[in-house]
Sequence to fold (238 residues):
Amino acid sequence: MCLSIPGKIVAIEKDRFVVDYGNEQRIAELSLVDVALGDYVIISNKMIVTKLKKEQAQQFLALVDNNA
Amino acid sequence: MPESLTPEGYFFIYAFPAITHCAGKITPEEFSSLESQAVLGKGPSLERLRRLFPNAFNRIEHLTGKIEAYTIEDYRSYWWIEHNRIIDHREKGYEQVQEEEAELCKVQFPIVKGLNGRVVTITYPTGPERKGLNYRNLPLQPGQRVSIHKGHIVEMILESVYTAYFPHAH
Fold:
């Protein structure tokens, strides 16, 4: 299984993206896509690999919550 | 020139992009060590891999009928065929996955279009341009077919090998 949970970008510093997962925050050091504050993204190994539409991300997070 | 990899090294260069999902199984120090091994194409032992990726090895055991002595072909068939089939059919935990994440999780075979340091622009026959990370520092050139998993360029692919697996692909 290689599924990832989407997180929300809450800060962008120089070459660093702070991504919030509700219960923790993680740092990405590179992004393969153009991103902005508030975007929902998927991280793999400290790298943002894709951006999700807000509705898609929230739908996925709701599924995770329901299955928790 | 094809790389010389051990079977477990071959499995691991594809598995490494998903290593962050082994939460609780590895420490940050172990992560750094595993990253170095993946970059070099060296794999942990079969026992360690089995602990890190139990779902994958359950499928590989089922597919090969073996519990050890796997070959590169065994692992290639898993990553290139079975892993993608499971995702396409939304089986084994992928039932609710949306298209974007499904495509990201699958192993795909784009062509290198351009290079900017370790960030590589790649193209798909039927899709848009995307970017990938040359995480193993492969000697890539434009026009080279590669495999990619979760945004990580995994290996350079010979066209003859690609067409043997996917004779009807572009």
About this structure: The two ends of chain A are 17 Å apart (CA to CA). The beta strands of chain A are 7-13, 16-20, 25-28, 30-31, 40-44, 47-52. DSSP finds one helix and six strands in chain A. The helical segments of chain A are 54-67.
